[in-house]
């Protein structure tokens, strides 16, 4: 009985749970349907809003497009009008050009007709002249040309003499004034440098110590410093021989330091060499700084000032290069001030004109080429570079400042006592000068005088007239400038001596 009750109760519970579940499911379904309907309504509303916004945007774009289209059409119409106007102008110009061409052709025809008439008249006149003078056309032409040539040559000779005399008088007076003033206000000592340097010894015993056991000291010295030591020339002295003047000076300082110390061996040589090299480097730096300070130059970099100082150890024809450059800069500054040139550029160009000589013993090439490379490396101005490369005539003067530097180089080198030359080179220069003058036609004899500063040329009077003598002087001067190397200037004097001898009996 109890079991039946339990089963019945279970069945009733199951039935009630099923009914409750169905009721709960139907409630949730109703809620979902309502939410779906709400979402659909909201979506339709959003769709309407989007469609309306798109229509407004489309209307706006359409209106803007129409405005742009109207503007483009307006611009096209204006361009078309301008093109039509230009076409009309071009047509008018073409018509004007055609008219001018027709006028020119008509004038050419007229000129051609007039030219033919002139030629015919000229022929008739020439025929009449031939009948009157009883000379052919060629004979009359030759007579006329000879007369005109003589008259023109005489007039030209007189005019040339007058102009040359006036130019020389004015130029010599002004040039002498400027150069004399510059030289009077400047001066420079001339020092002579050779390829050898002498060092005094306290006694003869010191020579043996310099040589060392089996020559090890002198070998170490020569190999380290790049010079040669001559110990058997004269008593109590040794001679340092070397082409590089800076090395020779370092070697002298090193040897003097070793002699003073008394201890001479390879290790001590190296120690003294390093010390002397620093001392000489300091001397070079001070010499360069003193030079630029003396000239008032403040824009040179330290390395360039160091190269300027190296010039104090170089000489040319017995003339110290640094002192020569400073002298040039001072003279050039005065000349530049007198003629209105750039004084600063002239000073820098004069001081650096031989800067290549600071390195020409260590580099290949002429000092002009090396100097140009140095100037380009330090980004100097084109005017200064031209002054460096043109001071020996290797390039054309591109500025007044470059010409002044070249002139100052000649002035400084030509100053009496500034330079010295060997006897052989002196004789060779005189022979070259006379041989060049004798190579010209009509020259009877020539003499180089004034230590090669003047060449006197005697010509044959029957072969050379006055005009030819003047032309010969210019030709000889030109050949000398092109073919010979010389300091300063050379005066060319052509002498035409006409002597007529008669005897009265």
Explain this structure to me?
The protein is mostly helical. Among the domains are: 196-414, Hypothetical protein af1432 (Orthogonal Bundle), CATH 1.10.3210; 423-495, GMP Synthetase, Chain A, domain 3 (2-Layer Sandwich). The chain is 69% helix and 7% strand. The chain has 14 helices and 8 strands. The protein has helices at 2-133, 137-184, 205-211, 216-225, 245-261, 266-295, 302-310, 321-339, 343-352, 367-377, 382-389, 400-414, 423-438, 466-483, and strands spanning 196-200, 228-230, 237-241, 315-316, 319-320, 443-449, 454-459, 491-495. The strands form 3 sheets. It has a 3-stranded antiparallel β-sheet, covered by helices on one side. α2 crosses α8, α8 packs across α12 (400-414) and α9 packs across α11. The model is unreliable at 187-193 (pLDDT under 50).
Give a brief outline of the structure:
By secondary structure, this protein is mainly alpha-helical.
CATH architecture of the domain at 196-414: Orthogonal Bundle
Strand content: 5-15%
Structural class: mainly alpha
Strand order of the largest sheet: 1-3-2
pLDDT averaged residue by residue: 78
Q: Give a short account of the largest sheet.
A: 3 strands, antiparallel
Distance between the termini: 208 Å
Question: What is the name of the CATH class of the domain at 196-414?
Answer: Mainly Alpha
Helical element count? 14
Order of helices and strands: HHEHHEEHHHEEHHHHHHEEHE
Helix content: 55-70%
Q: What is the overall shape? A: flat
Radius of gyration using CA atoms only: 51 Å
The poorly predicted ranges are: 187-193
Under CATH, the topology of the domain at 196-414 can be stated as Hypothetical protein af1432
Count all strands and give the number.
Answer: 8
């Amino acid at each position: 009985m109890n079991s039946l009750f339990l089963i019945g109760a279970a069945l009733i519970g199951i039935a009630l749970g099923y009914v409750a579940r169905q009721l709960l499911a139907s409630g949730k379904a109703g809620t979902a349907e309502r939410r779906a309907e709400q979402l659909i309504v909201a979506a339709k509303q959003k769709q309407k809003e989007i469609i309306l916004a798109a229509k407004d945007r489309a209307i706006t774009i359409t209106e803007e497009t129409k405005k742009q289209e109207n503007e483009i059409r307006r611009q096209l119409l204006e361009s078309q009008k301008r093109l039509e106007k230009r076409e009309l102008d071009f047509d008018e110009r073409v018509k004007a050009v055609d008219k001018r061409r027709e006028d020119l052709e008509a004038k050419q025809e007229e000129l051609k007709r007039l030219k033919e008439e002139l030629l015919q008249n000229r022929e008739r006149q020439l025929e009449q002249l031939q009948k009157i003078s009883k000379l052919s056309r060629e004979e009359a032409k030759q007579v006329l040309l000879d007369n005109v040539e003589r008259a023109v040559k005489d007039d030209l000779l007189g005019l040339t003499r007058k102009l040359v005399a006036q130019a020389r008088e004015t130029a010599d007076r002004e040039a002498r004034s400027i150069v004399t003033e510059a030289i009077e206000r400047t001066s420079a000592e001339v020092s002579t440098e050779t390829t050898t340097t002498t060092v005094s010894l306290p006694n003869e015993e010191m020579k043996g110590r310099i040589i060392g056991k089996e020559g090890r000291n002198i070998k170490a010295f020569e190999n380290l410093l790049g010079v040669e030591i001559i110990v058997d020339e004269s008593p109590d002295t040794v001679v340092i021989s070397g082409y590089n003047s800076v090395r020779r000076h370092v070697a002298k300082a090193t040897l003097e330091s070793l002699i003073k110390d008394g201890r001479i061996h390879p290790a001590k040589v190296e120690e003294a060499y390093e010390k002397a090299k620093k001392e000489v480097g300091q001397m070079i730096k001070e010499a360069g700084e003193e030079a630029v300070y003396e000239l008032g130059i403040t824009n040179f970099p330290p390395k360039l000032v160091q190269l300027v100082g190296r010039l104090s150890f170089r000489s040319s024809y017995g003339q110290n290069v640094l002192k020569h450059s400073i002298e040039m800069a001072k003279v050039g500054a005065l000349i530049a001030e007198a003629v209105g040139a750039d004084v600063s550029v002239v000073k820098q160009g004069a001081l650096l004109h031989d800067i290549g000589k600071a390195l020409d013993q260590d580099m290949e090439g002429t000092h002009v080429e090396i100097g140009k490379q140095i100037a380009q490396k330090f980004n100097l101005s084109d005017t200064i570079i031209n002054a460096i490369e043109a001071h020996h005539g290797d390039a054309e003067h591109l500025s007044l400042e470059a010409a002044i530097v070249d002139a100052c180089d000649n002035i400084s080198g030509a100053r009496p006592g500034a330079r010295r030359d060997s006897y052989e080179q002196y004789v060779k220069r005189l022979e070259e000068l006379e041989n060049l003058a004798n190579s010209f036609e009509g020259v009877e004899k020539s003499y180089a005088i004034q230590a090669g500063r003047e060449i006197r040329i005697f010509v044959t009077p029957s072969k050379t007239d006055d005009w030819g003598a003047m032309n010969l002087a210019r030709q000889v001067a030109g050949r000398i400038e092109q073919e010979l190397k010389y300091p300063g200037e050379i005066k060319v004097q052509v002498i035409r001596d006409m002597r007529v001898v008669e005897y009265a009996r």
